[in-house]
Write a structure and sequence with these properties.
Number of domains: 1
Low-confidence stretches: none
Strand order of the largest sheet: 4-3-5
Structural class: alpha+beta
Number of strands: 5
Helix content: 25-40%
Protein name: DUF742 domain-containing protein
InterPro entries: DUF742
Distance between the termini: 62 Å
Order of helices and strands: EEHEHEHHEH
Pfam families: DUF742
């Protein structure tokens, strides 16, 4: 949303959303392409950005980068919030889908020849 003076700024700085931490809590290794899914109900005692992130991924999956854009937070801050939720069981985190490897053309041709021979 924009105002006459320009884009709307966040009222709360990103470092306050992470409680000033410099490392994500827990054992989850998250990067910008990690995929987030809502897993369970939101634990009591969490609010603000934690609730917003959980509600954002509840209807379906999003990457950390997509969630950060929706929340208007840096990716690093979103990683911290997602790690908090994953540690409490409210989010499931999945590694990004790896890039496809090129197909071995020789193998594909032999497979096709074998399938044709079955006729």
């Amino acid at each position: 949303m924009t105002t006459p003076s320009g884009p709307r700024r966040r009222l709360v700085p990103a470092y306050l959303a992470t409680q000033g931490r410099t490392a994500a809590a827990g054992r989850h290794s998250l990067d910008r392409l990690s995929i987030l899914h809502a897993a369970a109900d939101l634990p009591a005692g969490l609010g603000g950005e934690h609730r917003q992130l959980w509600e954002l991924v509840r209807p379906g999956a999003l990457t950390v980068a997509e969630a950060a854009a929706h929340l208007r937070l840096p990716v690093s801050a979103t990683v911290f919030i997602a790690a908090d939720l994953a540690e409490r069981g409210a989010l499931k985190v999945r590694a990004p889908i790896p890039s496809a490897q090129p197909v071995n053309r020789d193998l594909a041709e032999r497979l096709l020849s074998g399938l044709r021979a079955l006729k």
